[in-house]
Design brief:
Layout: H1 10-40, H2 46-65, H3 72-85, H4 93-123
Length: 128
């Protein structure tokens, strides 16, 4: 089940935080590419793209730290949208957005299953 708001289990929020931290690194590298591309074509917004990209990367790291809160997952979804929006500046970020969206949704679904299985195992008495 995919959630957009609410409390997450410990395993789930840790995995989502890991995805966002990795995404922050890649988004930062994308910001450097955006600056380089803008500079190469003589676009005056080269430093603007760099700072916007750095801001998004920092937001990824902040959101990773906020995954424990119910609205942390909502912030994570907004970051996924912003990553797709960055493809308007660097088209390769579309592939980055697809990869990290797959990791994000996959983590939400699979980690929830793992936590449900762990909870069921804890409820079952040990046969020894």
């Amino acid at each position: 089940m995919v959630v957009f708001y609410g409390s997450l289990g410990r395993f789930t929020w840790r995995m989502l935080a890991t995805v966002l931290a990795a995404q922050g690194i890649v988004v930062f590298l994308g910001a450097l590419v955006a600056r380089g591309l803008a500079n190469a074509v003589g676009d005056d917004r080269d430093s603007t793209w760099l700072w916007v990209g750095i801001g998004l990367a920092v937001l990824c790291f902040v959101a990773a730290g906020l995954m424990r809160h119910p609205w942390g997952v909502t912030l994570g979804w907004l970051i996924q949208v912003a990553t797709f929006a960055s493809a308007a500046v660097v088209p390769a970020m579309l592939a980055v957005g697809v990869i990290f969206l797959a990791l994000w949704v996959g983590s939400l679904i699979l980690c929830r299953r793992v936590e449900d299985q762990m909870a069921a195992r804890e409820r079952t008495p040990d046969p020894r």
